[in-house]
Amino acid sequence: MGACNITVLLLVIMLWLPHGLSMGNSCSASVLEARRFFELENEQLRRRFHEEFLSGYNYNTNVTEANRQAMIEVYARNAELNKRLAQQIKASDYIQSEDADIRRQAEHLSKLGASALNADDYLALQNAISSMQTNYATVTVCSYTNRSDCSLALEPHIQERLSHSRDPAELAWYWREWHDKSGTPMRQNFAEYVRLTRKASQLNGHRSYADYWVQFYEDPDFERQLDATFKQLLPFYRQLHGYVRFRLRQHYGPDVMPAEGNIPISLLGNMWGQSWNELLDLFTPYPEKPFVDVKDEMEKQGYTVQKLFELGDQFFQSLGMRALPPSFWNLSVLTRPDDRQVVCHASAWDFYQDSDVRIKMCTEVDSHYFYVVHHELGHIQYYLQYEQQPAVYRGAPNPGFHEAVGDVIALSVMSAKHLKAIGLIENGRLDEKSRINQLFKQALSKIVFLPFGYAVDKYRYAVFRNELDESQWNCGFWQMRSEFGGVEPPVFPHRKGL
Ligand SMILES: *[C@@H]1O[C@H](CO)[C@@H](O)[C@H](O)[C@H]1NC(C)=O
Ligand SMILES: *[C@@H]1O[C@H](CO)[C@@H](O)[C@H](O)[C@H]1NC(C)=O
Ligand SMILES: *[C@@H]1O[C@H](CO)[C@@H](O)[C@H](O)[C@H]1NC(C)=O
Ligand SMILES: [Zn+2]
C-alpha cells in the first residue's frame, strides 16, 4: 500500500511540476513575443493554405490547362513566402525556446521540403507533378470489343471490366492499354520530379527526399519497424496468396494460372492489385453462405449518392460528432460531372476557413462506395475537429494518421450489425461460416493492400536514394511487387511505361 501511495504521489508531482514550470516561463517577454509572432504567421499561413486549396480544388474538379497553370502559380508564389518564413525562424532562437509549443511550431515551419528550391525549379517541379496528375486523370483507352471506341476512362469503365470480366485476354488488354497510355507519357515528368526533389534535399541538408519524408514519423527507427512489421505479416499473406492462386487455377486452368509463382496482376480485379475483393465470388471460402448483395438492396430502396452521404453524416452525428456544414453540400462534387474532366480519385478537402470542407469523388451507389464515403467523411470530421488549431497544426501528426482515422470508422460501418441497423441486410448475426467469409473479404482488401503499400514506399525510397538506376525504374518496381506481393504484369517484361 505504502509503495503504491508513493508512486501516486510521485506521479502527481511529476505531472504537476513541468506544467508549473512551463506556466512560469511562458510569461517571459521572449515567449510572449514568440507567441505573437507565431499567431500572426499562422494566420498568414492559413490564408495561403486557403488560396492553395481553392485553386487546387478548382483544378481537380475541372481539369483544364488554364486551371493547372493557375494552381501552380499560386503554389509557387506561396512557396516563396514559406521559404521566407523558414529563413526568419532559422535566424531567430525560436527553435531553442523554453516553450515546447513554440519549439514545435518553429521546427515544423522551418522544414521546407521542395519549397527550398529556387523559384524556377519550384515551378518546374509543380509543373511535372501536375502534368502527371492531368495525364492520369484524363487518360482513356480503347474498348476490347470495339477498338475504334477509345473513350474508356479508368473510373468507371475500366474498373467495371476489371471487376466483372472473367476473360483473361480482355483483362490483360485493359491492364496493358491503361499502363501504356498512362505510364509512358509520365516517364519524363517522373524523371524531372526525381531530379528536382534530389536538388531540394541537398539544399535542405537531407541525404535524400526519402529521409525528408520519413522524418515526419518522428521516429529514427521507423523504417526498421516498418520492415519488421511487414515480415511478421508475410506468413499470413502467403497463405492468403496461395489460397487465391489455387482458386484462380481452379477457375482459369493451369495455363492462365500455373500452380507456382506469381499471380498475373490483371486477374485480380484492380488495376494495381491493391485490393482483390472484386473477385469475391471466385474465392468465397463457403460459397453455400453467399454474401448478401448490398448493392441490390440499395437499388431496391432507391438509394442515391446524396443518400449515401446523408447516411454517413448521420452516422458521425450519432457518435456525437459534428454535422456536415451547409457549404459541404453546396460545394462538394459528389458525382462525375459530364461537362468537364475531373480527377476522379476520391479526396477530402479542408479549405482552412469557416468550416469549409468538401469531398470530390465520382461516387456510384454500391457497397464499395458506401465504404469510401465513410472513409472520406472520416477525413472531413477530422478537419472539423481540429479547425480551432493554428494552421501549422491543422494536419495529421504523421503521414499515416489521417488515413487511419477514416478507415477505423469505415471498418465498423461495414459490420453486419451496422448494415442491419440501417436496414440494408436482414440478419445482423453471422454464423461461423458466414463470419469466416466476412473476415476473408476484409483480408482481401486490408491485408492485400499491405504488400502493395509497402512495395510502393520501398520503391520510392529506393528511387529517391538513387539505389535504382534510371534504366531499372520500371523493372525495379515489378521486382518489388513480385518479391513482396507475389504478383506480376500479364506481359513481362513491361518495357514501355513506368
Ligand atoms: C472550367 O474551367 C474553365 C477555365 O479553364 C472555365 O472556362 C470553365 O467555365 C470551367 N467549367 C466549369 C464547369 O466550371
Ligand atoms: C464502335 O465505336 C465507334 C466509336 O465510338 C462507334 O461509332 C461504333 O458504332 C461502335 N461499333 C459498335 C459495333 O458498337
Ligand atoms: C447553398 O446554396 C443555396 C442555393 O444555391 C444558397 O441559398 C445558400 O446560401 C448556399 N449555402 C452556402 C452555405 O453556401
Ligand atoms: Zn483517405
Structure, explained:
It is a single chain. The chain is mainly alpha-helical and 498 residues long. It has three domains: 37-110; 130-289 and 431-488, no CATH class; 295-421, no CATH class. 62% of the residues lie in helices and 3% in strands. It has helices at residues 2-26, 29-60, 65-91, 100-109, 119-138, 154-164, 168-183, 187-204, 209-214, 222-252, 280-283, 294-300, 305-318, 326-331, 367-385, 401-413, 416-421, 432-464, 473-485, and strands at residues 140-141, 152-153, 263-264, 347-350, 357-360, 487-488. The strands form three sheets. It has a two-stranded antiparallel sheet with strand order 1-2. It has a two-stranded parallel sheet with strand order 3-6. The protein is globular, with a radius of gyration of 25 Å. Mean pLDDT is 92; it is low at 1-25 and 492-498. The chain binds 2-acetamido-2-deoxy-beta-D-glucopyranose (3 copies) and zinc ion. One 2-acetamido-2-deoxy-beta-D-glucopyranose is lined by residues 146, 148-149.
